[in-house]
Amino acid sequence: MIIILKPNCSEEQLTHVLEKIEEFGLKHDVSQGEHRTLIGVIGEEDVVRNAPLRAIPGVENVVPVLKPYKLASREVQREDSAFDVGHGVTVGGGSLGMIAGPCAIEGEDVLLEIAKSVKAAGANILRGGAFKPRTSPYSYQGMGEEGLKILRKIGDELGMPVVTEVMDPRQVELIDKYTDLFQIGARNMQNFNLLTEVGQTKRPVLLKRGMSATVEDLLMSAEYILANGNPRVILCERGIKSFDSSTRNLLDLAMVPNCKGLSHLPIIVDPSHATGRPELIPSMALAAIAAGADGVHIEVHCRPEEAMSDGQQALLPDQFAEVMEQMRKLAEVCGRTIPKPSSN
Predict the structure, then answer these.
(1) What whole-number distance in Å separates Cα of residue 167 and Cα of residue 189?
(2) What is the pTM of this model?
(3) Which domains does the chain have, with CATH numbers?
């Protein structure tokens, strides 16, 4: 349900409306535009439907929301969401989040070398996995808290926000101490306990689409985070399973404008996991920008043959720098901005 307030609604009336919503046992999310204030109301359908919301002073109209994902929908918020993810970096609303780094943190020297190279090329968010969800229990599982400490140290040293994956609700408190963004991987997109837990934090969340998830599935997972009080969710298309084995996954680029028509949340594209082939990453990254993505997520390693995880799909630093320059030019044509390479 969406409550549309009158143009002359006072702050006292707004506060009263919110108090009444809470009295009915419902949750609310306020969106204040230049001319109008909208309140998204969520809760049990029967309660929402029967609550006398229209009778509250200051309320002009009450409109039912047809989408099952209430807070993530364009019906609740027409403007694109944009928010700071740390160190003054904004994602959404024309500002692009360019995420780069190794699949796994392998040590301070290696991560620093990679981080300096991607920052110099124009990346504005550093990624690195401390806990790795691997298909095989015998594969490298990550450095754990020691890796988180390294990631935080290098992020602060270079002035870059950092993102790392959280796999379990029991890890949230620990990872929250070190990261600027939580990443929810494809395998955990419908781990509802985990979504609820990160929803109760103030950290932005990078939510990856599950390998067999529909667009609505992804938006419903985002709704879990939003409904628990955390409005800063970034969606990520990283490819879905298909019958074709020539690429790691099937990159669904139509999902970008599709999602943007349905939701106000920013969405980025991960061509590394989508293709699994470094020679395909540049063209797919450019296609993502052309499709309207709010950024890309690319794996980079100085020595991919020595990488402890997913080295076969990592770009070399000079390859990443080249595609960054191409994306920068394309973004400018499309009316969006990518950071200039660092002079440091």
Answers:
(1) 10
(2) 0.85
(3) 2-63 (3.30.70.1140), 83-333 (3.20.20.70)
